Amino acid sequence: MGLREYEAKRKFEKTPEPEPDLHRPGSGLMFVVHKHAARALHYDLRLELEGVLKSWAIPKGPSLDPSVKRLAVMVEDHPLAYREFEGVIPEGNYGAGSVIIWDKGFYRHPSALDENESEKLLLAGLRKGDLKFVLAGKKLKGEFALVKTGKDGKSWLLLKKKDRHATGGDILGENRSVVSARTLEEVFEAGPGEPSGQKKLEQIRLREALESEELQDAPAEPM
Fold it and tell me: Half-sphere exposure of 51 toward its Cβ, with a 13 Å CA cutoff?
């Protein structure tokens, strides 16, 4: 997919998001999960592959419950530097709203013996539409899969495999950044002041409250 779409959607003189950078650190394949209060509260899973971050928007967030499946919509590739991004995207910019690094760590293919083999197997899985991977994050651990469901190439399902890290509890209750320990609300309050700041803050609080209620009341989504 490359970074052209990512670059075309953003005005880097007006947003603190990182500009495209194809530099690859070479210290293992990394992943990050952003929690993003844009027009709708959602999570973004980003996997380092081919020198960029392959990205999926997950409206209901990831789960450690193997009986739960989550819609994951593939979006534009992001630069590797985006794995360190946490802050507020100003109004008038694409994806305006506060962003936290909800989880981060390393990942690999479950059958790979080294990083080179891992990347080859991961690329093959991505192209096939059946991407298996093992996460070693602070919140998300164990084997997962992204399975393509639509002909447009954008609709996928995120699934948790049965392993020792699987649990019926909802990990989304852990709502703080693994980097700064801040919530979306705290990141927004610390960001640049905006004309509609109070309204935006109230929206973030409402979305967080609604998510909390859903975690308590909603039944698990069956496979």
Answer: 8
> Cβ(208)–Cβ(185) under 8 Å?
yes
Domain count for the chain, please give it: 1
Residue 57 within any structural domain of the chain: yes
Say how many Å lie between the first and final Cα of the chain, rounded. 30
- Tokens for 103, please give them: 């989880």
> Residue 193 is part of which domain span?
4-217
Tell me if 201 is assigned to some domain: yes
Residue that the structure tokens 């899969």 belong to: 145
User: Which residues does 151 contact at the CB level (< 8 Å), separation at least 6?
Assistant: none
Residue 90 in tokens: 């100003």
pLDDT in the model for residue 213: 61
- pLDDT, one tens digit per residue, over 76-86 is 999 999 999 99
Q: How many C-beta atoms surround the C-beta of residue 31 within 10 A? A: 24
- Give, in order, the Cα–Cα distances in Å from 196 to each of 39, 92, 93, 187, 192: 14, 12, 14, 16, 11
